[in-house]
Amino acid sequence: MKHKLIASVPAIVLGALIAVAPQTFAHACQGHGTPGACHYSQQAATGIGAAILVLGVIALFVDPRVRIGLNVAVIVDTVLLLAVPTVLIGICKGTMMHCRMVMLPTLVVLGVLALAFAVIGIRVDSRAASASAGGAR
Amino acid sequence: MTSIVITARTLPLENLRRRPMRTAALLVVVAVLAVAFFGGSMLGINLGNGMRSMERRLGADLMVVPQNTESKAEALLTDGSPSTFYFTKEIAHRIERADGIAQASEQTYIASLAAACCAEKLQIIGYDPATDFVIEPWIASQFDGALEDGQMIAGANVNVSADGTIELYGRAWPVVAQLAVTGTSLDNSVFINQDTVPDMVEASASASRRVMPAEYADKAVSTVMIKVKDGYEPQTVADSIKSIDPSLGRLGYVYPGGVTAAAKTALGTLVGYVVVFVAALWAMGVIVLLAVFAASANERKREFASLRIMGATRGMLYGVIARESAIVGLAGGVIGVAAASLVLFPFSALIGSRLELPYLQAGPLVVIGVAAASLVLSTFAGTFASLVAMRGLARPEAYLTLRQGE
């Protein structure tokens, strides 16, 4: 049970934050005449956050080996999340723009945390999986 | 069933692994101490850098500005928002006739449009390269040519497009140089020569709202920057200006030295609070570490007595304890420094703007130095607390310790 929570709850919490933050306090710059890059990064981040959240919820109901796979998917999603505002889509260039001052750092912090917890989850589940495999032998 | 061979070298790590809750609690305490030390130190260093950067760029002893605009002018020197204010060149020329003035130079400030997105509100600063003694000295390190009409020099935060221009009032203005970060509002400014100011005013009129009436475009002056002669005080020169004409007494007089002193006081207060907070947290943290190690020393008497019976010397026991706590200290320190870095560096622009004080991020060498100091201190705190708490553990006779509680 403990391992299950360690390997799934962080993805649920951080996925929810990644989905909600760009639509609330860490929003893109407002008042675009036409939507700018930061707007599309914001929307993409929300989608990726929702996917991480769903992976975390599924992880609550599966065995450790499947959870390892789900956490690998969380890592891939998180790398995508970090790439969206920095490489793939981008944000406004101005250093003092809200998207650069608040949205980008928030996504980076949440992304790094999601990445770190996914690695911890994989490690915890790998041990549990190998221990149960050793016990079965 | 798998068997694990435990040697004297692997014993500390196994001890930590077998008591996950105790290890996690110790890691949290040490990580909090490292966050406080690293975060507090970096904040103080960055604010100090910003203050020194601001001081280097305040070349004038006195600024004469229009009536009731002193606070706007002071904000321009520290970390304020862009603004437009002006009087006429005729007033500026009368000011410059006062006694005690070594150098005087006129500047014109225009706030660009408060664009909703992607084109920031900039402070446009028009200066006279022929008389300037404030901006040129530090611009010279990055741009040694003559600033032609229509050209711009951009502050560090200004978004210059790939073709080397800035879009302002619907026109693309060529940028000849971009300055290094200063940590002050000058980073969000663009510099033009005074002859370009009328062009800028006309551009504003054709693009949106005229920033000043057309008749003022070629004679607007926002401030007269004054360097006083040796032996004169800025206040004396201000009195001398006021004595020329009573109407000049109604103008605003800003003393950049006083602004720096006020900013220094605010900085000193903030850094003082941070130091007290970090010191209090460290005192509490070390007490908590002592308490945790003391409690675990009590419960581990039998473990250590058993080790003594198996032939471990006192030195070996102290070595095990020291290595256990050093591992906790180092790991907690790394977690703490990483956690603080995760907030400090990505959010540095936000921190600077919220503090409303000059904030200049330190270079990588300083950051590495402070991080290393944080790790050393965390490791030392953990090792010190554990050795103090467990100093009596290896001392008594092993057999008697083992019999205790029977």
UniProtKB/TrEMBL annotation, chain A:
Extract the signal peptide range.
1-26
Report TM segments.
44-62, 69-91, 103-122
- UniProt feature coiled coil, ranges: none
Q: Which Pfam families match?
A: DUF4418
Record keyword Membrane present: yes
Q: Which keywords label this protein?
A: Membrane, Signal, Transmembrane, Transmembrane helix
For the keyword Phosphoprotein, the answer is no
- Would you say which domain of life the source belongs to? Bacteria
Q: What is this protein called?
A: DUF4418 family protein
**Organism, as annotated:** Bifidobacterium santillanense
TrEMBL record, chain B:
- Keywords, A to Z? Cell membrane, Membrane, Transmembrane, Transmembrane helix, Transport
Q: What is its main location?
A: membrane
- Leader sequence residues: none
Where is each ABC3 transporter permease C-terminal domain found? 276-391
Q: Where does it reside?
A: Cell membrane
Does the keyword Transmembrane feature in the UniProt annotation? yes
Origin: domain of life: Bacteria
How is it placed in the membrane, per its record? Multi-pass membrane protein
- Please tell me whether the keyword Transport is annotated for this protein: yes
Q: Which one Pfam family would you cite for this protein?
A: FtsX
List where the protein spans the membrane: 24-47, 270-295, 316-345, 365-389
Can you say what this protein is called? Answer: FtsX-like permease family protein
